Amino acid sequence: MRKRGTTTPREPPGKVRIIGGAWRSRRLAIPSGTSVRPTPDRVRETLFNWLRNDIEGAVCLDLYAGTGALGFEALSRGAAEVWFVESDVLLVDALEEHARLLGARPTIVHRNSLAFLDERPQRRFDLVFVDPPYEQSLEPIFHRLRPWLADHPLIYAERPLDEGLPTFADFEWRKQSRAGAVVFGLAAPRQAS
């Protein structure tokens, strides 16, 4: 959830809103001096409608966490656990402050996401949010994800509309949509034949 500092028209600058669940309408501050691009409300609303039968009790990984909008939205809607991975110290501090204000207990990892994925897996995840800076390719991320995934995982990704979602040999897109200049989808590992 980073890049180019745009927010949805309904949001005041510097804040992103949790749109559903226990923390509905709570706002997460976006620290100045960062270059995050929070996932817009409309996209998150569609995503969590897709996940309504999968989010309760899920163990989630929010790579490139940024403001934490996706991970905190998941916790708000009943996820059992969320790990945030973020390399920007200002955003890590903000994630810790958001967790404190919400009374949440996520695992917050201050590390480069690819370096994190190159480590031996400490946990298996049911749901992974992948929203790196647009200039970074999804392929190396998806390639590294396999050991971190639980038995029936879903992976969310978001890209600019003009780029589209890539095709993977080992993953298939189960759902796709677009909103404004963004295309997004849910992928799952292909079943062995």
- Which strand-content bin applies to the residues? 25-35%
Question: Could you say which structural class the secondary elements and strand pairing correspond to?
Answer: alpha/beta
Biggest sheet strand line-up: 5-4-3-6-7-9-8
Uncertain runs are 1-13
* Rg calculated over all Cα atoms: 15 Å
Mean pLDDT: 90
Number of helices: 5
List the secondary-structure elements in sequence, H or E.
Answer: EEHEHEHEHEHEEE
Main β-sheet, in a few words?
7 strands, mixed
Query: What does the overall shape look like?
Result: globular
Alpha-carbon distance between the two ends: 34 Å
* Beta strands, count: 9
**Percent range of helical residues:** 10-25%
Concise account of the structure shown:
By secondary structure, the chain is α/β, with parallel strands linked by helices. It has helices at residues 41-50, 69-76, 89-102, 113-117, 139-145; strands spanning 15-17, 27-29, 59-63, 81-86, 107-110, 125-130, 149-160, 171-179, 182-189.
